[in-house]
Amino acid sequence: MSSAALTRLQDGLAALQADHLERRRRLLDGAQGAHVTIDGQRVVSFCSNDYLGLAADPALVAAAHAALDICGVGAGAAHLITGHHRFHDDFEAAFARFVGKPAALLFSTGYLANLGVLTALAAKKGEVFADKLNHASLVDAAQLSGASFTRYRHGDLSQLEGQLAASTALDKVIASDLVFSMDGDLAPVDALLDLAERYDAWLYLDDAHGFGVLGDGRGGLTARARASDRVIYLATLGKAAGVSGAAVAAHVSVIDWLVQKARPYIYTTASPPLLAACLLESLRQIEAGEARRARLCSHIAQLREGLVDLKLGALMPSDTPIQPLVIGANADAVRASQALLQHGLLVPAIRTPTVPANTARLRITLSAAHSADDVAQLIEALHALG
Questions:
Q1: What is the C-alpha to C-alpha distance for residues 224 and 228, in angstroms, rounded to an integer?
Q2: Which of 101, 135, 209, 299 is catalytic?
Q3: Which listed residue (88, 172, 239, 370) is catalytic?
Q4: Residue 264: which of 110, 382, 143 has the closest Cα?
Q5: Alpha-carbon distance 120 to 185, whole Å?
Q6: Thinking of the domain 22-52+290-385, which architecture would CATH place it in?
Q7: Where does CATH 3.40.640.10 sit in the chain?
Q8: CATH 3.90.1150.10 spans which residues of the chain?
Q9: How far apart are CA 12 and CA 128, in angstroms?
């Protein structure tokens, strides 16, 4: 490699640091939870997506131990060779029943699931219509699908309808986050379904942050969307479910098509079967998890009430565990995050390009594993900063 090429990389890293955009990995010791040891410091964590506190739940740990004696560690092959274990199959059937869809398919990650679905459904003769604030995995999947890629302003259904009406694509896919990961607001599911029906489009909903949390735990699908053959539903399983992977639920023909055509599913080794065994237990915990969800809702209400008159910044409207506190400048958000860390509170600063310029924020995420005292400590520290 030429020294000039290496110098360009080093200059780029220096520029990121100067703009307060440098990212680094923090080192976790021990299990995930509301109280963790990060970089050698014991902190209260407000940055995990473990919304129900299942990541280290004893029931899931016991399921993993039991599965090890049955299936070992690795899957050994892709699903279409010999890697599709009974645990995978049992979870897919249980997940489909739980979310009220005819069939489901388990992917190794949500990123691979989005890539698999959009490349299989849209392709060169299709067009993907995407909310401007969709997660990066949906954006990348749309771009890599080979289809035309059209974005509409966040939540602007009038603009989306105009784009759909003008489209001559053979296959149309409306793709949207169901809970938007940086703002915490929800997509208008039934209104999107109206447009999908009117213009003969698929509606693909990525419910990474709603599954396990919203409603009775089955996520943010409305009854009408649950019953619709044109709705394809994705749930990430490394957040509220506490494990790993993602599941796509849809009409049987859609799932059969994905098995034949979704390259990120076909051409990769299956996820370890023991994870699927853990996910079966996770589904049981989510289904019986009303007390966890009630505790989480109580924490959300406590935080929002406690920060009504905060001078540091303003909470965005959100009824989900994602509570974004907008600060403004990148540097100010970073300084606020660092100050909280000195109080033993881990809250990440989210900056451009993840969020628009001048909307850098503290992204507070709450968990049922937090206590009311944890939330009160955060409220007090934020007021002190303000």
A1: 6
A2: 209
A3: 239
A4: 110
A5: 28
A6: Alpha-Beta Complex (3.90)
A7: 58-287
A8: 22-52+290-385
A9: 33
Q: What is the pLDDT of residue 1?
A: 56
Kindly report the three-state secondary structure assignment for every residue of 249-310: EECHHHHHHHHHHCHHHHCCECCCHHHHHHHHHHHHHHHCCHHHHHHHHHHHHHHHHHCCCC
Q: Rounded distance, CA 4 to CA 169, Å?
A: 45
List, for residues 113-161, the tens digit of each pLDDT value: 999 999 999 988 899 999 999 999 999 999 999 999 999 999 999 999 9
Please name which of 31, 98, 106 lies closest in space to residue 284, comparing C-alpha atoms: 98
Strands 349-350, 126-131: pairing kind? unpaired
Which residue's entry shows tokens 């589904």?
Answer: 283
Alpha-carbon torsion angle 38, 57, 290, 230, nearest 10: 90
Q: What is the pLDDT of residues 270-296, one digit of tens each?
A: 999 999 999 999 999 999 999 999 999
181 is catalytic: yes
Condensed to tens digits (0 to 9), the pLDDT of residues 11-50 reads 999 999 988 888 889 999 999 999 999 999 999 999 999 9
Among the listed residues 45, 181, 282, 337, the single catalytic one is 181
Active site residue 3: no
Quick one: which of 105, 117, 122 has its CA closest to 173?
122
The rounded distance, in Å, linking the Cα atoms of 59 and 285 is: 8
Domain covering 58-287: architecture: 3-Layer(aba) Sandwich (3.40)
**Are residues 324 and 183 in contact, defined by beta-carbon separation less than 8 angstroms?**
yes
Q: Is the pTM of this model over 0.70?
A: yes
Distance CA 136, CA 134 (A): 6
3-class secondary structure, 336: helix
